[in-house]
Amino acid sequence: MMIRKTWPEWRRVGRELAPISRKVRCVGSLRNPVGPLPSSIYWRRRAVALSLIALLAILVLWFATSGGGDNKGGSSKGPNPTQSITPGPTGSGPAISTAPGGRDTSSGSGGSGGSGGSGGSAGSGGPGGSGGANSADGGTSTGSGGSDGANSGSGGGSSGGGGEGTNRVPAGSPLPICAPGSLSLTLRSTKTTFGPGEKPRIEVVVKNNSASTCKADLGPKGAVVTVTSAGNDRVWSTDDCPSGDPALFFQVPGGATITHAVEWDRSKSAPGCATPPAGSVGPGTYLLEAHFPGLPVARASFALSKD
């Protein structure tokens, strides 16, 4: 049997060249893998190993950064203390509780209209105020939304002013005139019985049954109010001898109701400002009628007491 003897590397290449020989062989094995398998397989293994190492490094870096971000953002994502809310100063003005031209008014006198200011005494003058024997229209006209609150001082409070209601519009207003079929008319007295010296207050209530806003003439000749005695004697009418503008147009919003107030000073009148019948108006029951073009006659009644 032959025994092969392996000589140390330094003996084969010399002591000085032995380290260089080992480096050359190492570099050559990296570039050209040595083994029983094809070199492509070794290169694939190396690529997989490098990929795993890179993936592991990325995961470590991600865990490190995400953990630090959670710790840093913990304070900002924590529950914030509830802030106290201090209520601000409330407005000093009155609250608006009615829609424009909204509800009916049925006040018994023409006194204060709420916070908006107080009205003058009933029939205290102005166009349509109190008058003598030939006076025709002795009241005011107000939109129903003006009887309460801040608006009442100018239009809804006074019962003897010049008929300037909150819904008053000029005759030349571009609003269309209300069609009779879209309106409904109601007549009422603010009291069933008036004592001596009290001037009966009558209210003409008009409701717009359509959805469109329009204007209606509720003046002394547009909505004619007539007072007759129980014996059917004609006593007084708004269109006999009106003092002032005979046409008073008011805006009536769709679906809303407005009230036109008329005050009778207990005098008699005659058509065309003629001399009225002699005699004074005595106690008893009196009938009211309101005539508006195209609408059924509205009726009501009241009484004048002796004392």
Q: In CATH, what is the class of the largest domain?
A: Mainly Beta
Reported CATH architecture of the largest domain: Sandwich
Indicate the mean pLDDT. 72
**What ranges have pLDDT less than 50 throughout 5 or more consecutive residues?**
72-79, 87-164
Strand content: 15-25%
Total count of helical runs of at least 4 residues = 3
**Radius of gyration of CA atoms, rounded to a whole number:** 51 Å
The CATH topology label of the largest domain is: Immunoglobulin-like
Number of strands: 11
Terminal-residue CA separation = 163 Å
Order of helices and strands: HHHEEEEEEEEEEE
Region (Disordered): 70-179
Biased composition (Gly residues): 108-132, 140-165
Biased composition (Polar residues): 79-89
Transmembrane segments: 47-65
Structure notes:
- The strands form three sheets. This protein has a five-stranded mixed sheet with strand order 3-11-10-6-7, with no helix packed on it. A four-stranded antiparallel sheet has the order 1-9-4-2, with no helix packed on it. Strands 5-8 form a two-stranded antiparallel ribbon.
- The chain starts with 8 loop residues before the first helix and ends with a strand.
- It contains three helices and eleven strands.
- It has two domains: 10-60, no CATH class; 141-304, Immunoglobulin-like (Sandwich), CATH 2.60.40.2360.
- With 307 residues, it is α+β, with helices and mostly antiparallel strands.
